[in-house]
Design a protein that fits this description.
46% helix, mainly alpha, 50 residues, 0% strand, 1 helix
Length: 50
Amino acid sequence: MEPLRRPGDALPSITQPIGEEGEMNYAAGVLALLLLIYLVLTLIHPERFG
Protein backbone atom coordinates (compact mmCIF):
# COMPACT_ATOMS: atom_id res chain seq x y z
CA MET A 1 0.00 0.00 0.00
CA GLU A 2 1.39 3.38 -1.01
CA PRO A 3 1.66 6.16 1.58
CA LEU A 4 -0.83 8.98 1.27
CA ARG A 5 0.41 11.91 -0.80
CA ARG A 6 -0.09 15.45 0.36
CA PRO A 7 -0.55 18.36 -2.11
CA GLY A 8 2.87 19.85 -1.27
CA ASP A 9 4.86 16.65 -1.73
CA ALA A 10 5.79 17.33 -5.36
CA LEU A 11 7.00 20.87 -4.67
CA PRO A 12 10.61 21.55 -3.67
CA SER A 13 11.00 22.91 -0.16
CA ILE A 14 13.58 25.53 0.80
CA THR A 15 14.06 23.86 4.20
CA GLN A 16 14.66 20.39 2.70
CA PRO A 17 16.60 20.66 -0.57
CA ILE A 18 16.14 17.71 -2.90
CA GLY A 19 19.13 15.58 -3.89
CA GLU A 20 22.18 13.99 -2.34
CA GLU A 21 24.13 17.27 -2.23
CA GLY A 22 21.48 19.07 -0.16
CA GLU A 23 23.85 21.72 1.15
CA MET A 24 24.96 22.69 -2.35
CA ASN A 25 21.34 22.95 -3.48
CA TYR A 26 20.53 25.15 -0.47
CA ALA A 27 23.55 27.39 -1.14
CA ALA A 28 22.65 27.67 -4.82
CA GLY A 29 19.10 28.65 -3.86
CA VAL A 30 20.33 31.37 -1.51
CA LEU A 31 22.71 32.75 -4.15
CA ALA A 32 19.95 32.72 -6.77
CA LEU A 33 17.66 34.59 -4.37
CA LEU A 34 20.33 37.24 -3.70
CA LEU A 35 20.95 37.63 -7.43
CA LEU A 36 17.22 38.03 -8.05
CA ILE A 37 16.97 40.72 -5.35
CA TYR A 38 19.98 42.53 -6.86
CA LEU A 39 18.45 42.45 -10.34
CA VAL A 40 15.12 43.78 -9.07
CA LEU A 41 16.86 46.59 -7.19
CA THR A 42 18.87 47.56 -10.28
CA LEU A 43 15.64 47.74 -12.27
CA ILE A 44 14.04 50.00 -9.66
CA HIS A 45 17.08 52.20 -8.91
CA PRO A 46 19.57 51.92 -11.79
CA GLU A 47 21.48 55.03 -10.69
CA ARG A 48 22.48 53.53 -7.31
CA PHE A 49 23.88 50.24 -8.55
CA GLY A 50 26.51 50.53 -11.26
